[in-house]
Design a protein that fits this description.
The chain is built from 13 helices and 10 strands. With 344 residues, it is α+β, with helices and mostly antiparallel strands. It folds into 3 domains: 77 residues, Orthogonal Bundle (Arc Repressor Mutant, subunit A); 157 residues, 2-Layer Sandwich (Beta-Lactamase); 92 residues, Heat-inducible transcription repressor hrca homolog, domain 3 (Enolase-like, domain 1, 2-Layer Sandwich), CATH 3.30.390. The strands form 3 sheets. A 5-stranded antiparallel beta sheet has the order 7-3-10-9-8, with helices on both faces. A 3-stranded antiparallel beta sheet has the order 4-5-6, covered by helices on one side. A hairpin with an 8-residue loop joins strand 1 and strand 2. It is globular. The chain starts with a helix and ends in a 6-residue tail after the last helix.
Length: 344
């Protein structure tokens, strides 16, 4: 637990660094925030915050910057109670989106663009997938040297097919055995049940990374991550203008993450059933490709059940207050659109 002075200093450092991506010095925050104590006292408090892992010092002569732990404390203890519903944003969403309520893909595509234009980060929207569809069977066919064609049949008569990378270098014999295993284990389960089971099984099978069962689970995970939902991401041109992405390698990594939407859907699977706005900060991200990013996301609802997910993706040096408010407001707006057939 931090005392009130430490909380004030941490909040000041976080907000100063969000405003300007330069390490924050004690003299600067003392002058800007009128703490009522000296820069020397601020400096000692910042040193203590660094020892506790809330701040780090990039260079011995520089100021300090927040760590992921510092951002987490800021969001949970200093910010969440201040986040409010933005009526102006709701009115803007109504003007831009209400006419699209009958076309869910266009509605969510425009939602992602609106979130990006208002936040200057990446805007994200994911359509609801057919979570309650029941698996009939899976067929896996070699498509080329490096790709596989996977065909999924549901008991409701839906047929989905995807071409995915053969990252595991599986032979035709292996593919046949994997298909038999998956059909034996998962036929008759809903897509939602299969995804939940896969999360648990993947953790248990990590130690058996070369076993056929482990490879089958990894393949099934990739197939299910593609199944059903459409992912809309907007704002790459917005986000690469930020100083956080001045490094070409960071831009390339971000572009690869956006292009391979499996990483996004892996994260969404962990958010879809959660209540309210979820904040995932940097290293907390369970998806390796996104550990340098923060995600603010919320499920919107279709009546009593979760629909899809909308959110904002940006650097850990994100304006969390604005992003949380935007996502919360947009999620409430979309839920009202879908409530009782669109009478919101």
């Amino acid at each position: 637990m931090l005392d009130e002075r430490s909380k004030r200093v941490l909040c000041a450092v976080v907000e100063s660094y969000i405003d300007n991506p330069d390490p924050v010095g004690s003299r600067y925050v003392t002058k800007r925030y009128s703490f009522g104590f000296s820069p020397a006292t601020s400096r000692n408090i910042m040193a203590d915050l660094e020892d506790m892992g809330f701040l780090s010092q990039p260079h011995t002569s520089a100021g300090r910057v927040p760590t992921d732990k510092g951002y987490r404390f800021y969001v949970e203890n200093l910010l969440m109670e201040k986040v409010s519903f933005h009526s102006e944003i709701a009115e803007l969403l109504t003007r831009r989106l209400k006419s699209l309520r009958e076309d869910i893909d266009s509605l969510l595509d425009e939602t992602s663009k609106t979130l990006s234009s208002l936040s200057h980060y990446l805007g994200l929207a994911v359509t609801p997938g057919p979570e309650e569809s029941t698996l009939g069977r899976i067929e896996i066919i070699p498509y080329s040297d490096e790709r596989l064609a996977v065909i999924l049949f549901t008991n409701e008569g839906i047929i989905k097919h995807k071409v995915i990378k053969n990252d595991l270098s599986l032979s035709r014999h292996d593919l046949n055995r994997i298909a038999r295993y998956l059909n034996r284990e998962y036929a008759g389960f809903t897509i939602k049940e299969i995804r939940q089971h896969l999360l648990a099984e993947m953790e248990r099978e990590q130690a058996l990374c070369d076993s056929l069962v482990s490879r089958a689970l990894r393949l099934c995970r990739d197939v299910m991550s593609y199944y059903g939902a459409n992912v809309f991401i907007a704002g790459l041109a917005e986000i690469i203008e930020l100083p956080d992405f001045s490094d070409v390698e960071r831009i390339k990594e971000l572009s690869r993450t956006i292009e391979d939407k499996r990483a996004i859907i892996k994260l969404i699977d962990r958010i879809i059933d959660a209540e309210g706005v979820q904040v995932v900060i940097g290293s907390e991200n369970p998806v390796r490709e996104m550990k340098a990013l923060s995600v603010i996301a919320s499920a919107y609802r279709e009546g009593e059940r979760p629909g899809g997910v909308i959110g904002i993706i940006g650097p850990t040096r994100m304006d969390y207050s604005s992003a949380i408010s935007l996502v919360s407001t947009a999620a409430r707006f979309l839920s009202s659109i879908f409530d009782k057939g669109g009478r919101g």
